[in-house]
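Example 366.
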Amino acid sequence: MGDTLSLTDRIKRMIALQGPMDIATFMALALADPDQGYYMTRDPFGTQGDFTTAPEISQLFGEILGVWMLYQWHQAGKPNPFHLVELGPGRGTLMRDMVRAISQDQTASNALTLHLVETSPVLKICQQKTLAALPCPLRHHDSIESLPSDPLFTIANEFLDALPIHQWIYHKETWHERVIGLNQAGELAFGLGATRDIGSLPPPTPPKDGSIWEHNPLGEAICQQLGQKIGQQGGALLLIDYGYEKPALGDSLQALKDHHYTPILDEIGNQDLTSHVNFHAMQQAACHNDKQNTHAPALSAHLTNQGNFLLQMGLLERAGQLGAGKSHQDQESIRDAVERLAAPNQMGTLFKILAILPTGIDAPGF
Ligand code: SAH
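Predicted structure in complex with S-adenosyl-L-homocysteine:
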């Protein structure tokens, strides 16, 4: 018999036995517990689900990113195989749309090998279905460790925000780990944990009592390893997510269910948990990791927001092409998608896009 306790009750039991839990452990359980974690048990996307991501809004998003990656493959000298890698591919929609755009180039299409890094068994099946009709080989990976030692053209959309973060809270001139414990009624509650040294990236502004500093160690480790791989093997890395360009203080942990924000501790395992991405930290991790290997080519980082990138890459022209000859209603919905993806008051400004490329390589859209 499996464990019949709810995830909330299991977490309460762990805290009762082991003491307060840090936010990263809590997020890892809520999102990735093999039996009851949010991503492990469902397809959360779309109007029927809890949230909608850019590739689910319009095919234009993936097609533009496909054109960008194709250009990078050309700049890299058309390595064969063309390893196209996606981290956290959700339903596989972004990959499908990218491949459609890349397949305009027959040589690229013939060289394509797809790699999906995914932990959720439910989403792996969903991705396999979405991509089943494509003629290119497709491999699933549980982590980036098993990716090939060749040039890698890697993309991740709304992946980093789903990884577990630590939060540190400033109290009486000392940083403490923010934790979840049990209150007097035996319910889960946030609290102050042990004092912590907050590491090598100090906040730019002096903290006040209650200030929060976040750290995404898994995201940084993944960026560091992929940066190292690109430095040694070549390729490109493109990361898209909501987040901020400069290090900043603040609590960005949020829970989402049925397209509404909900309290973090409400429905553990049944609601999405995310944080905003510190792009400065990801860029540092990707680009400054290879000090020992003086022969590796240096990497450069290019950062802008999603709206700028898509517009510079020709979003409006592509939308026009897609809408040509279509019904008034279809054209309206394309216009609506363009707004959602690029308008400053929608995804255009909040979402950032970070490219990590070998130095000297052109980065269109930035
Ligand atoms: N990129 C998709 C989905 C974003 S949701 C889109 O834009 O629609 C986050 C995705 O990351 C899901 O597929 C989730 O299962 C996956 N994921 C979360 N943690 C992961 C990890 N540690 N390793 C690999 N995939 C992970």
